[in-house]
Amino acid sequence: MPLSDKIRNARITRGWTRELLAVYSGVSASTIGRIERGDLTPRAGTIIALARVLDLPVEELAAEVGITIHIPPNKWS
Q1: Rounded Cα gap, residues 7 and 65, in angstroms
Q2: Per-residue pLDDT tens for 51-62?
Q3: Where are the domains of the chain?
Q4: How many angstroms from the chain centroid is the CA of residue 39?
Q5: Dihedral angle at the C-alpha atoms of 13, 14, 15, 21, nearest 10 degrees?
Q6: Topology of 3-64 in CATH?
Q7: Cα dist from 33 to 1, 9, 29, whole Å
Q8: Residue 75 — pLDDT band, cuts 50, 70, 90?
Q9: Which of 27, 28, 60, 63 is most buried, judged by most C-beta within 10 A?
Q10: SS3 19
Q11: Other CB atoms within 10 A of residue 47 CB
Q12: Smallest Cα–Cα separation from 35: which of 68, 66, 5?
């Protein structure tokens, strides 16, 4: 499943609008929309922010766009 679908599905599963995800993640709603449509490849910081609030694996999302990110265990605890 493409990154855009993973993010959209995770957001919709939670019943969140793009605007609410923007508030939680610090990523603008317009950027989230562009990512979900596949019009924009997110940068590492954006991937981390979205993965963190959507409880998705950072490394997996980053790999979808060819970025290698290693988050040490318990980094966000």
Answers
A1: 13
A2: 999 999 988 888
A3: 3-64
A4: 14
A5: -120
A6: 434 Repressor (Amino-terminal Domain) (1.10.260)
A7: 17, 13, 6
A8: low
A9: 27
A10: helix
A11: 26
A12: 5
* Residue 59 CB partners (closer than 8 Å, separation 6+): 68, 69, 70, 71
Tokens describing residue 34: 């562009």
pTM for this model (two decimals): 0.84
- List all residues 6 or more positions away from 47 whose beta carbon is below 8 Å from its beta carbon: 58, 61, 62, 65, 67, 69
Instruction: For residue 15, count other CB atoms closer than 10 A to its CB.
Output: 7
CA distances in angstroms from 15 to 9, 22, 30, 52, listed in the order given: 10, 13, 18, 17
Question: What pLDDT, in 10s, does the model give residues 24-49?
Answer: 999 999 999 999 999 999 999 999 99
